[in-house]
Write a structure and sequence with these properties.
There is one protein chain. The chain is mainly alpha-helical. Helices cover about 60% and strands about 5% of the residues. The longest helix has 23 residues. The chain starts with a helix and ends in a 7-residue tail after the last helix.
Amino acid sequence: MFVHYYGGSPGDPEGWFSALGFAAPFLGLGTVALVGILRQRPALVLAAGVALMPMALVSIVLIPLLIPAIFLTVCSAAKQFRPGDLVLPGLLAFGLLVVFGVLVFHQDPVTWSTPEGGGYSGNIVTSTEATFASATTAAIVSAATLITGRSAQDG
C-alpha cells in the first residue's frame, strides 16, 4: 500500500484511497488466513496461501510475499481434508484473486500535467475500482468469519 501510494508520480490522480483499494485483496487474504488460524480451519489458511502466490508474482516489489504464501500453504497442506473442505474456502480466496485481477488487468489510461511537468499511466486504480475492491474484500472476509462459526475449542 505504501509503495503504491509513495511510488506514484507527483500530480498523478491516484491518492490514498486508490492505494488502499490496491492493497485490499492482500489485506483480505491475510485476514482470511488469520481467521483460519484463530478458528482452527486450515482449509482457509491453505486457500489464502495458494491465492497469494500468483498475486505475489505480478511485480518484483511483491515477490517477498511468496515467503508467507509458501509458509501458509506448506503448514496447512499437511492437514487432512475431507473432499468438500476446500470448496468454500477456495471460492472465497478465488474471489479475492478476481478482485486483484480486476485492479491489475482493467486498463484505465490517464494523462496529467503539473507546473513541473506531467505524466501518463496506462493503468491507475480509480475510485470506483478502489470502492469495488474494498467492499468486495470486506464482504469476503465477513463471509469467511461467518462460515467458520466458533472455533473447535469453543465446542
